[in-house]
Amino acid sequence: MTTAAVLAFAAGVLLLQQQAALPAPHWLWLLPLCAALAAWRRAALVPCAFALGFLWAAGAAHLRLAERLAPELEGRDVEIVGVIAGLPAHGERVVRFDFDVESVRVSGLDPERRGVPARIRLGWFRAAAGSSDEAPDAAPAEPERLHPGDRWRLTVRLRRPHGNVNPHGFDYEAWLLERGIGATGSVRARPAPERLGVRDGVLDRIERMREAVRDRFLHALGDRPAAGILAALAIGDQRAISNEEWRLFQRTGVTHLMSISGLHVTLVSGLAAWIVAALWKRAPWLGRRLCHALPARKAAAAAAIVAALGYTLLAGFAVPAQRTFYMVSVVAAALWSGRIAAPARTLALALGIVLLADPWAVLAPGFWLSFGAVALIFYVGTGWSAPEARVAQWGRVQWAITVGLAPAALLLFSQVSVAGPLANALAIPLVSAVITPLALVAALLPIEAVLDVAARLVEWLLQFLEWCATLPVAVLERPAPPIWAVMLALVGIAWLLAPRGVPWRVSGAALLLPAFSLPAPAPEPGEAWITTLDVGQGLAVLVQTANRALLYDAGPAYGPEVDSGGRVILPFLRARGIERLDAMIVSHHDIDHLGGAGTILETLEVGELHSSLPHAHPVLALTAMRKRCARGAAWSWDGVRFEILHPALEDYAVLRRANDLSCVLRVSAGGRAMLLTGDIERRAEALLGGRAAALRAHGREESEELRADFLLIPHHGSRTSSSPAFVEAVSPRWAVAAAGYRSRFGHPNAEVLARYRARGAEIFRTDLDGAVTARLAASGVRIEAERTRKPRYWRARDSARDL
C-alpha cells in the first residue's frame, strides 16, 4: 500500500506541473486535512496521497514564484550587494554566475530587498555587446577574476525569468524555477563594480576548493580534451566539455557517465560502505572500541551516507546529484534499521523523498531516465539465480536498460543510441571503476602522475567512442511519439522483460512498434505548415509541405560553440521527423539570421542553399548546391508554390545595406499566402511596392504578389521597416514579429505594431507567444502559438504584452 501511495503522490506532483495556473493559496489549507484523513482511514491513503502531492507541489510553487523579480524593476538599474554563489562560468565574451543578494538600493524605491529575489543569475560581459539581446547597452570593462564567496557591490539590469518556448524544446524558465533563480540580468559599467571582501561559509569554502581543483586540472592538462571531462567527473563542472564531445557522447549513449551522475555517487558511497565494513570486521582496535556499540552494518550505512553527501557537495550540490544522494540515503537508512524492504518499496520511498525535496524534478529528463534505469534493474533482477554468471547478469541489465529506456529517449530526445550497449559495455566499468576514482584522487592529492594516467585513459576511451559513432546506424532517429504510444510501449517492455515462465514474452515487442514506426504529423497535399521558431533576437522559420521541408534563416549564434542550429532547430526537426532539408534560405549577411547555418549544413543533408551572402562567405563553402536569391525564381512542392520576390539580380549592385538585400519569399497554399521578409527596410519595401505597381499597370496577375494573409514583420518590427505603404500593400490579417524578450534594440517598435493593428492585423510575438505556427490550407489559416498551446504556470503571462 505504501508503494501505491508514493506513486499516487508522484502523480499528484506531476499533474500540478502540467497546470497553466496554480490553485489559489487558500486551497493549501487542505494539506493538513488530507494528511489527517490518510492517517485515519487506510482506505483513503492513495487518493489522499494524490491530493497531497498536488497541494505540496502547489505550495512549493507559490513560495518559489513569490521570489521572482517584481515587474516594475525590469529594465531598471539596481544597485545590489551580495555574494557569488557557485563556480562562475568563464566564456569567451561573458562570465556568468549565480549571485546571492544581501541588500538592494533602487532610486526612488524602498531600500530594502523588496522585489529583488534572494538569488539571481548574472552575466558580466568582457567586451562590447554583440547581437545578443542579453548584452547590456554599456558592458563593463574586462572583469576581474571572479571567485565563489566574493562579496561585490554591483549595478545590474534585471529581467524576470524568460526563455525560448518551442515544441520539444528545452524549458529554460522551468530550469530557473527548479534552481530558485528569480531573475537574470547583466552587470552595468557605471558605477564601477566594487569588491567588498569574502563570505567564509562552509559552502563557500567547498566552492573555492572546487574552483582550485578545476583550475589545477585545466592548467595541468591544457587543451587536452580530457581536462574538461575529468573536471566534470571530479567536481561536476561540465562547462569545459566541448559541444563536439557532447555530440559524441550523445551518439554513443554515454552522456550519463560524463558528469557526477547517479551511477558515480552510488559507486563512491558503495565503495565507502564496503571499506568501512571490512575495517569494522577485520581491524581489532575498531572491534574492541566500537563494534559493540555500532555494528558493522550500521557503520557501513553511515559511511555510505557521508560519502554520498561529500561527493554531492563536491558536485556543487547540483540538483541531479541531490536526487541520487536522497536515493542512497534511503537505501542506507534501510540497512541501518535492519528492515530491508523489497526493492520496489525502497525505490518508491526514494521517489517520495526526492519529490518532497524537489517537486520540479518530474520536469527533468534525467529524473525519468535514472529512476527508470533503477526500476528496470530491479525488474529484470527478480529472476536471477545465485550461480548465474556475472557476465550473463551484466548482459541482461544492458539489454533491459537499452530496450526499456528507448521509448522514453524517443519521447524526450527523438533519438536512441543503437551503439549505446557496445559503448557502455566498456565505458561504464572504465569510467566508474577506474577513471572517476583516479579523478577523485587527483582532486584530493596534487599528484600529476595520477592526473596524467586518468587523462590518457579518457583519450583512449574517446577514440573507442569515435569508432562506435562511425558504426552503421549508430543512432536511430525517429519522430517524437505521442504519449499513448509511449505508454503502450512501456506495457510491451514489461511483457518483453518479464521473468521466465510468463507466456509469449516476445510478443511484447509488438507493442513497441507504434512508438518506433508512427510517422510524424504532416500537412496534407496542397497545405503548408510554417513555424516561426522562438530563437531570441533572430529568425528561423520552417516551411513544411506534405513531403518537403525548407528552412528560412537559421537563427543567431549564442556563443563560440553554441547556436540556435544545435540548440533549437535540430531538436525541432528531429521531433518532426525531418531528416533532410530540400532547401534552405539564408536571407542575408547578419549573425542573428545565419548564426546556426553552419551547424545545420554540417549535420543535415540540404538540397539547395539560396542566399544573398557575399560570394566569399564561409557558409557557402559548406555546400556545392548554392544559388543566389533572385526575383523570379519559383517552384512548387506538393501543391504549394514558393516565389522569391526580392532582391532582383540588378539590386545587388545598387543596394548597399545587407538588410535591404534580404531574400523575400512568398509561400502560397490553398489560396492563402505568407510573406517571409527577413530584415528588409524601407528602401527594399519601396522597390517591392514599385514592382508590384508596375505589374498592376500592365494588367499582370502577379500585381497582387505582396498581398498575404500572414506576414513575417520585416526586421523584427524595427521602426526602419514596415512603412505605411508596405503595410497597405500587404494588408495581412495576421502578423508575427520574431524578436528577443525585452530586446535592447527596442524590437518590435510600438508604433509599428500599432500600424498593423490599425489595418486590422492580429499580432503575434515570439518573445511573448513562443514559436508560432501558421497552417495554410484551402479551408483557411490556422494559427497556433506555443505558449498558448502548452501553457504552464511558471511562464510569462500575457500582461507582458504591455512592454
What's the topology here?
Blueprint: H1 2-16, H2 30-40, H3 45-65, E1 77-90, E2 94-105, E3 119-125, E4 150-159, H4 172-178, E5 184-187, E6 194-198, H5 202-221, H6 226-235, H7 243-252, H8 262-282, H9 284-291, H10 296-314, H11 319-337, H12 343-357, H13 365-381, H14 390-404, H15 406-413, E7 415-417, H16 420-444, H17 448-469, E8 475-477, H18 483-496, H19 513-517, E9 528-532, E10 541-544, E11 549-552, H20 564-575, E12 580-586, H21 591-594, H22 597-603, E13 605-611, E14 626-628, E15 634-637, E16 640-646, H23 651-654, E17 664-669, E18 672-676, H24 682-697, E19 710-712, H25 724-730, E20 734-737, H26 750-758, E21 762-765, H27 766-769, E22 772-777, E23 780-785, H28 786-789
Parallel strand pairs: 3-5, 11-12, 12-13, 13-14, 18-19, 19-20, 20-21
Antiparallel strand pairs: 1-2, 1-4, 2-3, 4-5, 4-6, 7-8, 9-10, 9-22, 10-11, 15-16, 16-17, 17-18, 22-23
Helix pairs in contact: 1-3, 1-12, 2-3, 5-6, 6-16, 6-17, 7-17, 8-9, 8-10, 8-11, 8-16, 10-11, 11-12, 12-13, 13-14, 16-17, 20-22
Q: What is the helical fraction, as a range of percent?
A: 40-55%
- What's the count of strands? 23
Distance between the termini: 52 Å
Query: How confident overall, as mean pLDDT?
Result: 86
Rg from Cα = 29 Å
The secondary structure category is: alpha/beta
Query: Which residue ranges are poorly predicted, with pLDDT under 50 across at least 5 consecutive positions?
Result: 128-138, 798-803
The number of distinct helices, counting runs of at least 4 residues, comes to: 28
The strand order across the widest sheet is 14-13-12-11-10-9-22-23
| Beta strand % | 15-25%
